[in-house]
Structures are given as C-alpha cells and as structure tokens.
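TICKET #2291
ISSUE: user wants both folds in one file
ATTACHMENT 1:
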Amino acid sequence: MKTLALLFSLFLMCPLSLWSQSANDLLPKVSEALSEGKDDYAVSLFRQSANAGVEQTEMFYWTNVDKNSAVAPRLVNELATHYKKKRNYDKAYLFYKEYLQRYPEDVSALVSCAEMELMRGKEKDALKTYEKVLKLDADNLQANIYLGNYYYLQAEKDKKKLDDDFKKITSPTRMQYARYRNGLSDVFTNNYTKAKAYLQRVLQLFPSTEAGRTLEKIRKVEAEMR
C-alpha cells in the first residue's frame, strides 16, 4: 500500500503534459526542482528527460549539477540505468564508475559495472570487480557464478594445452612426465580448486543444474589426478 501511495503521489506531482515534453522543456524544471530542494521530483523529471533526449540530459548533468550534492549520485544512476537499457555499454560503464566514486561499496552498482565490463570485452576487469563484490557480499550469486565459470574455463584451457603439448612427445622421459604432472597439479590448485569453491557456494545459494554438472566434471579431473 505504501508503494502504491508513493507512485500515486508522484503521478500527481507530474502532470500528464510532462510525459510528452522534450528534454529541453523538462531540464529547466529539473533545475527549478533542484534549487527548491525537491530532490525526488527532480530525479523523476530527470528520468523523463533522459527518456526524451539523453544527450541533452547528460550534458545537463555535466554542466549544471553540483557533483558534491546529495542528489548527484541519484542522477548519475538514472543515466547509467538508461544507457544500460539502451545497450550503450560504454556510456553505462562511464556512469556506473562515476556513481562508484561516491559509493565504492555499493554492491548493486558494482555488479552492474561488472556486467558492463563484460559487455565491453573487459573480462579481467570484470573479474576484479566481481572479486570486490564478494569481499562485500560473499553470498552474491551473480559474482559466484561468474568467478566459478571463469576459473573453470581457464582451467580447461590450461589443461588442454598441457595435454596437447605432452601428446606431441613420442617417447616422454620420466622428467618430462613429472613436469607434465606438476603442471596439471598447478592448474588444479590455481584454477579448478577456485572454480570448485565458487560453484559450491552457488549450489548453497541456488539449485543450479549447470553448476552441479561443472562440479561433477571437476571431480572427475580430481579423480584422474590421483
């Protein structure tokens, strides 16, 4: 009921004519609302302005908003969310990073930032961001899934290279075989074990069939190395 009441009050605050106005019409109203301390109303108008013309709205943020004000991060989040929905991952990433300057431990924003890093092909950056997420929230499902799969795929890649290289040796010596086994042991310790820990946490949080299958594959590799 409280949510419905809030939505109804916001609706009353925003005349129907606002919904069809351009960004150029709405942004002066944002300025007015901000100057009067009506932050919630300003954010609502800013959101509508972004939908009507995000380029003008973005420029307004950079040139007219006090970056040290309490409302600034909320406006940044609106731009980040808008660009994410529009699949403009570069801009969305820019504004999530801007938001995180003020709130570096906001888990939700960190997860969104990691998503944008992935969409921009920055897998290692996403890895670091998800690791930060887990330091703040060890039970974050999305971060555990990503890290579990990342380390599993890395382990599979490294193991395949070791196997392929060893198969090229027609008559391996004991030293070559020992080096091969040591390499497998390192791969298991550095990657498979990490993947196993993250995916086990996933299963504790969510009944993931895929995570269960991957864990079974890791157990088979572990058994082969004994």
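ATTACHMENT 2:
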Amino acid sequence: MSIDYLKKILTARVYDVAIESPLDPAPTLSARMGNQIYYKREDMQSVFSFKLRGAYNKMANLPPAQLKRGVICASAGNHAQGVALSARKLGCRAVVVMPTTTPQLKVDAVKARGGEVVLAGDSYNDAYDHALKLEKKLKLTFVHPFDDPDVIAGQGTIAMEILHQHSGPIHAIFVAIGGGGLIAGVAAYVKAVRPDIKVIGVQTTDSDAMSRSLKAGRRITLSEVGLFSDGTAVKLVGEETFRLARKYVDEIILVDTDAVCAAIKDVFEDTRSILEPAGALAVAGAKAYVERARKTRSPVRDQTLVAIACGANMNFDRLRFVAERAEVGEAREALFAVTIPEEHGSFRRLCALIGPRAVTEFNYRISDERSAHVFVGLQVANRDDPPRLAKQFEKHGFPTLDLTHNEMAKLHIRHLVGGKSVLAQDELLYRFEFPERPGALINFLESMAPNWNISLFHYRNQGGDVGRVLVGLQVPKKEKKELQQVLASLGLNFQDETENPVYKMFL
C-alpha cells in the first residue's frame, strides 16, 4: 500500500508541542562561502532538537486504548526527550530505555519531562533489544526513532515550513542523516512540491550507513559507527527511510570530525548558539558542497542554501575537543613534522621560512647528533596552503611531513613530541577507542598480560563519548600471536600504528 506523504505531512499533528522554528540567515558564513546560507533552527525547539515532531505525531495518532496503555522507546538522547515530552502532553505513560553509557545530563533531561528511564546495555542496539522485550511484557506501544510513517511525516513538517518561509528560489536543502527519518520526511515533501530543489544528505565518514546502502542498492549494516556525532551514529538505516531516500534524495556528502567541529564554530559565530555534532552536520555538508564545486568548472555562487540545524544537546565538556579541532576543520591550522639538521643556524632558517605566519604549536627535542624533528602548527588561509608550505620547506632542505590529516598526530603525537627512548626495544604501538564510562580504562589495563611491558601510554579525556588511548607494548616475538588474540577479544576499535611514520620520527 502506497503512502501519501504529502497529505500525511500537511495534516501532521506537531504544533501542540513544536514551534515553527526560524529560518535565520547566516551572514558571516554566507559572505565567506559566496552564497546565501540559511539555518533552519530546530535547535530552538523546547527539547533542543527536531525529534519531538515525529514522536508527537506518532503518539497523537495512536488509538485511544493504545495510548492509554503507554509507549516505550529506545534512545540515547533527543528522541527520548521528544517521547517523554509528548507523553506528558498527551497524559500517557512513557518508558525510555537508554544505554548505561548515556551521560547523566541526558538521563536527567528525560526524567525531568516525566519519562521512566530504564538503563540497559552498553550501546543503542542493546537498549533497543531490551525495549522490544519490555514492549511485549508491559503491553506498551513502541515509538520508533525514525522508521515509521507517522514519525517521518512529523519530521517532514520542517520542509513545509522552509518552503513557506522562503518562497524564492532554493538551490539545495542539506539534511543530517542517522537512521533517515528526517531526510525521508523532508525529501518526500520537497520533491512533491518543489522538485527543482536538491535534497542533499550529510553523514560522517565513520557513520555512513545510508550512503553505503544507496550505493549498494540495499540496506548495509555497519559493524562499527563513530560516536562523535552520537545523534547520527546508526548502524542500520530504516526500511521505509531507505526506500524514500532512494526515491527522492539527490546525493549524500560525507564529512569528517574536523569539518563538523568547524561547522559548530561557524554557527556559533553567526548565532552565538552551540549545536551538537549531529546538529551541525548539515552546515558542514553545505560547506563541503560549495568547496567541491569551486574545484570544478561549475562553481556554486550566489545561490540559496538551507542547512537544517537539527539539534543542540551538546555535552559541555566536549567543547574542549571541538575547539581544538575546529581550526583544522576550517583549514585555518596546518600541522607539520619538519626535520632540520643539528647545525648552527638551521633553526633560524626554519623560522625565517615560517615568516610572519602565526605559529599555533611548536614542539622540539633533540633526538641525535645529526638531525632534529620539530612538530609545528601554523595558521593558514585555506586548504591549498599546507601542501604549498610543505613543498617550500622541502625546497630549502628541510624534509617535511604534512600531518594536517593524520589522526594520530592530531589526537596524540602533538602532546607527546620528544618521547624517543633507547630503552623501547621491540615496541609495538596501538591506538584504541573505547566507550567513555567509569572503570573502562582500568578494565583495559587489566586485560594486558602481566609480562607485557607498557612502554608508552597516552590518554587524554576529550570530553566525548569515546576514550582514546595510545599504547606502546614490549611483547616478545614468540608471544605476538597471543597478543593478537587478546586484542581481538577486547571488542574495541583499535589500529596498529607501529609503521606510522609520525611514530618512527617522534617516539
């Protein structure tokens, strides 16, 4: 049975709880990008995200007897708050299953809106499985975060508002994608009313389930997802959202963590509001779209672009990480490893090459009698600057590595420069990620065999949902197979960095 989404969106019940969010111009970003950019301010909803639209529309359309029994959902954040608020408005019970790793801020927000919180499992998938069991046991109705026609229609009212608020030409609307509920609703409405407008999805490079699924022509399940943009960290998109995306979405753009951090800063500079990573995804996508077009014969200029700022439930501690990475994401900072000869005047020659350019970081320690390795951070004007500077250093006799896009350099090496040791024989280097929760670090350390010497260890709490550790292990050659088995049993994301040239140079 086909669903008339235009009718469902036009008749959706959302305004008992939602506002018609503003469509605000972005003067600073617009001037820099050479286009007229607007933010659709869903971060200004009472729960600081668009999610209450779909949740309320689903619940308001339930039969009275079903609504009276109550609802249940699984969520780590925004959907949970939308369900709790909607239940309070409709006078029904709401059970919200959240992972045990959910920040207390979000747990308290759901409780404050009347939701009954149940903590279960370490991940969303664990919470989802537990919610399905409770649904049957308690005879509640499950409110899906994205794969439900009523939820999709509720989110689609955002597109209805955009076209009402801006009746002139719109080149493209950019939409963050997690499970696909938001873009499915937006695309269904836009293509029914103004098919000339492009609908462009945006995902992070490490949570690109919809992008991979569209390329494959079927839904693809990711084995792991990045947790920085936790609001879009979905391993499998919805069946209905995938169908609608295949039919209506023009393309999907992928952006990295640094680009998202830069977009958060862009929105702050224009509005003095701070979006969460998922909330800034659309902005990052719009910027990437314009940047990509600049490199072709068909640049995008003087066009109207709309980015849906879909959420602002940001953990305050995470701002440390965002601030550190925004400059790289905006191509305002470049990182280099420069080798200089240990001879009189070489340091001065390097400084002369840098000239009046602002130095953001400079780390140096003598390594041997012939040469020294310097870790340098420089302020740059655009994305073309780093390779040009690297060539300039090389031209003047300073071998150079451009580290601007080297993840280990940005996360760890910049804090560890000068750590070479003659004692670090047979050292293997690994970079780990694990859910940031009490006891996780101790559990990690206890998993290491007692006869394996930890020769390097770097851990820095970045204020995010993921803990990042760099570990040097001295493991006898005959025990390397045992090491691989132990690492595999940990169930953590890890990367062997032993051959990384940055490690060999500095550590």
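RESOLUTION: both attachments delivered.
EXTRA DETAIL ON ATTACHMENT 2: The chain has a mean pLDDT of 88.
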